[in-house]
Specification:
This protein is mainly alpha-helical. It has helices at about 5-30, 35-45, 45-50, 55-80, 85-105, 105-115, 125-150, 160-180, 190-210.
Length: about 220
């Protein structure tokens, strides 16, 4: 390996190290309580080193969220190509979303549970716009999957946007509770796999039975973080 290749690899490794430390600290201490100095101390570098990669902690947060959405989107787009019936693909996509959140709890909590006002200073930047586009593309996968199931008569509902957002809220609640509370010794939690599968059964059964979700005038996608 040449000098240039080695330096590029070392640079990418340090960038990943910064992101990992930032993600851990944001979850442990809260975004508002973390400084670049704290992140630098965690990885045993000077704050000046972090400025070579990120201009501030808001950009760090946006990068973490953007990478999370990109990974989700890539996997969900692959699932769309699967040779399976629409309902099986819908369930597989929802299950993947749950498993992804549980496998990457810090990234999930930062992306989906960080208060929106922490990102206001980024809202007019190209980086934020790209992250938001990726987020909406990810949500489009759920919309398309639900619509396909409805078109072939496997599910019944009236309002696609309202149904998609409701399903996402339901699944998001499942992931969040499993990350944050499943280890609580003061509540008699059922076995995790049973909870996940039963959650999927319930949300899909409610649509199979033709339960009406109502209608809404709001047809525009909402921000996801």
């Amino acid at each position: 390996m040449g000098i240039a290749e080695r330096r590029a690899r070392e640079k990418e490794e340090l960038r990943s190290k910064i992101l990992e430390a930032a993600g851990q600290l944001f979850v442990e201490q809260g975004f508002q309580n973390v400084s670049l100095r704290k992140i630098a101390d965690r990885i045993e570098y000077s704050p000046a080193t972090i400025y070579l990669y990120f201009r501030d902690k808001a950009e760090l947060l946006n990068t973490l969220c953007g990478e999370t959405f990109s990974q989700l989107l890539a996997a969900l787009l692959e699932l769309e190509k699967a040779d399976a019936d629409p309902l099986s693909k819908l369930r597989a996509g929802l299950r993947f979303y749950i498993d992804f959140g549980l496998q990457h709890p810090n990234h999930y909590l930062l992306t989906f549970c960080t208060p929106h006002h922490h990102c206001r200073q980024l809202e007019k930047t190209p980086e934020f716009e790209q992250t938001n586009r990726t987020a909406l593309e990810t949500f489009d996968c759920l919309r398309r999957s639900l619509q396909h199931c409805r078109q072939v008569g496997l599910l019944e509902f009236e309002d696609l946007e309202l149904t998609a957002q409701t399903v996402w809220m339901f699944i998001h609640g499942t992931v969040s509770l499993l990350i944050l509370n499943s280890g609580d010794p003061h509540f008699p939690w059922c076995e995790k796999e049973q909870l996940i599968e039963n959650s999927l059964d319930l949300v899909l059964a409610s649509l199979k039975c033709g339960a009406r979700t109502g209608t809404t005038k709001q047809q525009h996608p909402v921000a996801h973080w």
